[in-house]
């Protein structure tokens, strides 16, 4: 008769995909709005269209930013997580509260750089 000793739970898996802190910076700076005139014009002239576009490209419902309190901050955090970008919820909150349109342009540029 053979005795089997289980040292690890069968089927156990690691859930953490990457570093909690991220491994890179944003592809472009917060105030690099003029480096991409398409996102700048879309954000300036049709802000709801730009936000819905970002939401769907990030894999969320297009109305999420409008229906969820703090939706833009959550959307920015999602993009950071998807891209492995360094930052914090506090930084996301500050960017969206004080430089919201620049933050929206930055998110559009980042999604473009990520191929989404």
Automatic annotation (TrEMBL):
InterPro entries: PLAC_motif_containing. It holds the Pfam family PLAC8. Belongs to the cornifelin family. This is PLAC8-like protein. It comes from Mya arenaria (Soft-shell clam).
């Amino acid at each position: 008769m053979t005795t089997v000793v289980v040292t690890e739970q069968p089927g156990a898996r690691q859930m953490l995909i990457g570093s909690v802190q991220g491994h890179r910076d944003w592809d472009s700076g917060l105030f690099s709005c003029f480096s991409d005139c398409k996102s700048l014009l879309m954000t300036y002239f049709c802000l709801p269209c730009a936000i819905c576009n970002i939401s769907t490209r990030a894999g969320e419902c297009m109305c999420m930013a409008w229906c969820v309190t703090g939706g833009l901050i959550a959307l920015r955090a999602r993009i950071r997580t998807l891209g492995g970008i360094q930052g914090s919820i506090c930084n996301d909150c500050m960017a969206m509260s004080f430089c919201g349109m620049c933050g929206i342009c930055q998110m559009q540029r980042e999604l473009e750089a990520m191929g989404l």
